[in-house]
Design goal:
By secondary structure, the protein is mostly helical. It has one domain. It contains five helices and no strands. The protein is elongated.
C-alpha cells in the first residue's frame, strides 16, 4: 500500500473519530440547563466538516485500494462474513452520517432560541444527536473489526 493510501486511511479514521467527538461535545453542551448556542452551532458544523472529510478520504481509499486488494482477501478468508455483513452495514451507515449531521446543524442554526426554551424540542434534538453518535460509533467499530479480519 502506498504512502498516499495510508494517508487517506488515516485521515478517514481521524476525521470520522473527530466527528464523533464533536457530536459528543454537542450532546454535552445541549445537556446543560442553559446550552450555549455558539458552542452547539460550532460543534455541529465541525462534525459536518469532519464526516464529509472522512467520507471523501474513506471513499478514495475504498475505490483505490480496499475494493481491489483487501476485499478479495477478506472474502477468500475464514471471516468472509465480516465484509458481507459489517462492511455493507458500515457503508450504509456512513452514507447517511454527513446528511444526518447536516440536518442537526440546520436544526441547531435555525432553532437556537427554541433549543434554549422548548424542553420538548431540546429532548428531541438530544435523542437525534445521540442516534447520530451511536451510528458513528457503530461504523467505527465495524471498521476496526474489518481491519482485524484482514490479518486473520
Amino acid at each position: 500500500m502506498s504512502d498516499t493510501l495510508i494517508f487517506y486511511l488515516v485521515l478517514h479514521i481521524i476525521l470520522g473519530s473527530a466527528g464523533i467527538i464533536f457530536l459528543t461535545a454537542y450532546l454535552l453542551s445541549l445537556s446543560k440547563k442553559e446550552p450555549d448556542s455558539k458552542s452547539l452551532k460550532s460543534s455541529s458544523f465541525l462534525a459536518v466538516l469532519s464526516f464529509i472529510g472522512s467520507w471523501i478520504f474513506g471513499g478514495l481509499y475504498y475505490t483505490s485500494y480496499y475494493g481491489k486488494v483487501v476485499k478479495p482477501i477478506i472474502l477468500k478468508g475464514q471471516y468472509s462474513w465480516v465484509h458481507t455483513i459489517l462492511m455493507e452495514t458500515k457503508e450504509h451507515l456512513f452514507l447517511f452520517l454527513p446528511f444526518l449531521t447536516i440536518a442537526l446543524f440546520v436544526i441547531t442554526a435555525l432553532g437556537k432560541k427554541g433549543l434554549e426554551k422548548n424542553e420538548n424540542l431540546k429532548k428531541s434534538v438530544l435523542r437525534f444527536a445521540f442516534i447520530i453518535v451511536g451510528l458513528g460509533i457503530t461504523a467505527a467499530l465495524a471498521g476496526y473489526m474489518i481491519s482485524g479480519a484482514v490479518t486473520k
